[in-house]
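Entry 12.
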Amino acid sequence: WASAAPSGSFSSAAFLRTGADISITPEPAQPAEGDNVTLTVHGLSGEVLAYSWYAGPTLSLTHLVASYIVSTGDETPGPAHTGREAVRPDGGLHIQGALPGHSGTYLLQTLNRQLQTEVGYGHLQVYEMLAQPVVMANNTALVERRDTLRLVCSSPSPAEVRWFFNGEALPIAVRLGQSSDGRALTRHGVRREEAGAYQCEVWNPVSVSRSEPVNLTVYYGPERVAILQDSTTRTGCTIKLDFNTSLTLWCVSQSCPEPEYVWAFNGRALKNGQDHLNISSMTAAQEGTYTCIAKNPKTLLSGSASVVIKLSAAAVAMMIVPVPTKPVEGQDVTLTVQGYPKDLLVYAWYRGPASEPNRLLSQLPSGNWIAGPAHTGREVGFTNCSLLVQKLNLTDAGRYVLKTVTLQGKTETLEVELQVARECV
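Predicted 3D structure (tokens):
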């Protein structure tokens, strides 16, 4: 610590020696900005004539805060005086409303009656009251395994930084991408489990401040696309339905955001953009493969699942069902045939008993349509044996008979009673 005594402090003729027993401690030990701080001196020996305080590492005039003469109480400010320092009679240095700029090394030089000087030193750290930091993200909506996440904790203070995820301290395993100063997090190929609220916190011994949360969304999927029926997975299965019954299929997947849905029947897209598909009044025409395609507009990925729907064995027996079941005059009605033989050779519809030829409405032998004596011009037959009767009138009510013959010569006769209600006026 030996150096020439600066002008305005002690004479260079004084004997200078390091005060091994002099120590300086701040009170309070960890002051915050704005606190009143006293640098207390310990280990003084003999009768001290004067004190000189320096805010710096050397006994240089530029670092001189103030000199104090004990006998007169006169204090002389130096170049490093900020207007807040005052030397006490016991040698301590009092700082009124200390600021972070007062932090650093302080030297005290004393002069005794033997014109000997001693030097002691101490360190003062004034901690600032920290402003709230801000988390800045390169993007808050990222695609899983494709995008990189970078978070930066912005703060004007050089204080220590720690990170929080969903309100909890960020685990070390997740901090592998942390920068050396702790202020940046980088995650290459971000994962879905890393979506959530991120905060950073700056701290020192007297102050803590945490940022507002930044919410991160990670897009993924669709994955595990499946078709459900009554919460039971049906993907890849065959569902058997009774004739004229209904069914609702649900398409589910793991995806963020919720995917867009497209349904297809036997490879042909249906006009349905919902996550469910309703099948009502099951008939043979609705047998086939139903596919749900889920598309994620953010990841640009898609997935699909399919089921096969067939009429149940119980529905194989042929039957006739009017659609609608209770038509009114003026309406069309279709006498729908369920379970007609697949090896059909010929069928014939009768308006009344099949034993009376004049009752023949129409028949379809080998794909050729033939109108019978009872045909009114309003009846149309189809290859699935169904019969359409257009613009009903009350006289159309009554018994209709269907006769089918298979390639093996098997004959079957069914009948249905059609009711026609009078139109309400």
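Annotation: The radius of gyration is 48 Å. The first strand starts at residue 15 and ends at 27.
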